[in-house]
Automatic annotation (TrEMBL):
This is Uncharacterized protein. The chain crosses the membrane at residues 12-31, 43-61, 73-92. Keywords: Membrane, Transmembrane, Transmembrane helix. It comes from Altererythrobacter xiamenensis. It holds the Pfam family DUF6338. It comes from the Bacteria. InterPro entries: DUF6338 (IPR045919).
Amino acid sequence: MEAQFLDPDNWTTLAMLLAPGFLILGIRARFKEGAVPDLKDRAVSYAAVSAVYYAALRPLFEVPGAVALPGWLWAFLYYFVVPCVIGFIVVISDQKEWFYRQANRFGLKLTHHMPAAWDYAFSNLKQGNFLLVRLGDGTEYAGRMGAGSFASSNGGERDLYLEEVWVVRDDGPWEKVQPERGVLLCGKDIQVVEIFD
């Protein structure tokens, strides 16, 4: 039994069975905030998504009288190209929240795919938004979320790096600190984040 499991043909078959789920969920994970599940949970997800993929697409790839493709091209399309296209469609659907809007039209309330409000707020932030961050000790930092800024999506530590630090004037507009500098704020110290357009 063990020798049969270690047979390279069995590993190839397993890889082909899980490939669509691996590609679809792998592409989605690259664009999704939040913690990555452990390997055991991912393997079950790969198998489930692959099963749905095969059930839905196998009939489309075996249409009687259709154009005959060379075996290598058929396999390349079936195991790689189509799952990648579906993965990108899922990413676009997630980011545009199409599925949630359709569910709401039918009165269904779904759990959001973003694990925390932090992830949701920063994923929808436009480049150039200004932030006012208050720490637990009352210290405030103002800054601009530019291309070089970063908000961590790690659930354990919500660090925030602002590439530009600004001074907030009570009687006038905000002014960029000179000389220019950035600031790294540790998530455990952050109390409140205000976002301005």
